[in-house]
Specification:
globular, 6-stranded parallel β-sheet, alpha/beta, Rossmann fold
Amino acid sequence: MPQFKVIVSGGGTGGHIFPAIAIANAIKEKYPDTKILFVGALGRMEMEKVPAAGYEIIGLPIMGLQRRLTLQNLKFPFKLLASMRKAKKIVKDFKPDVVVGVGGYASGPLLKAATKQGVPALVQEQNSYPGITNKLLANKVQKLCVAYDNMDRFFPKEKLMLTGNPVRQDIKNLEAKRARGIEHFGLDENKKTVLVVGGSLGARTINHAIDAGIEEIAKNDIQLVWQTGKLYVDEAAKAVSEYEGKGIRTMPFISKMDYAYAVADVVISRAGAMSVSELSIAAKPSIFVPLPSAAEDHQTKNAMALVNHNAALLVKDVEAQEKLIPTLIALVANEQEQQKMSVNVAKLAFTNSANIIADEVIKLINR
């Protein structure tokens, strides 16, 4: 069994970290003797999540540029130089056979250092509108694995491969988990259930709209599993306090997302790349409320890739207070529409992305 050495770099958000870990796991499954090193940004989420997944990680002092004028930006060139030096040393010491970039601050310096030293490289881009790091790296790497069509607008066509986004394995075969999910959340299996997710910090607009519409939701006998994020947990608990026994549950964070997807008839979510990919695999009818401040409005573009195939609905952030609850009530009441959306979204799902990308990584070594 060959003993490969692979560096996986990037992070900053769960949307970058979960695919990175999924790719690493797929490589290890195929080639158990592979040595995998992660390189992330100091102080970012990956420094905690990657070791929890069982991998070693080294942090670079890299930071992002703030879009507004701020004193923090004065530190950027110094942090970038320090990160470049450290990345160069990591590549020299570890001697990888291949490097994988998943986007985020750290992948820029690391992949630049590696490609300069002649190490083959692959980039995985999760969004329908690529991040600046991946756009800058496109000409230096050998392979670009993407999750959406028409990415040759941004990347060299000959390097592109449509693979979809690697997602958590536990969200497949959800039907078998429904009964356990109903029990886990204390729900009534005969009632319709809506899952609301806004990321680990919650989504302010979605939270406010749900808060304002709780009475309407309860009146229509709809159950709710509401991930509020840690910043809204107290307000949400207060909002639902008088609906005890109606199957309305709030929590800052859902650790058993497979159970949450399994019980959901309809999902309300932001339109980050990983949310869109997971909901496609889970084949759930969804209402997306894209985050308007996302770079180049990429969340709207992610959502529209489904909306254009009649596979999801979209409510603009600015219209959520007025339109989200009526849209939700109408969809929950329309089982035919739910069924149609489930069938359509399942057609757009990529179910084997991590394995396909892992094979491409190994091909680069053997090439």
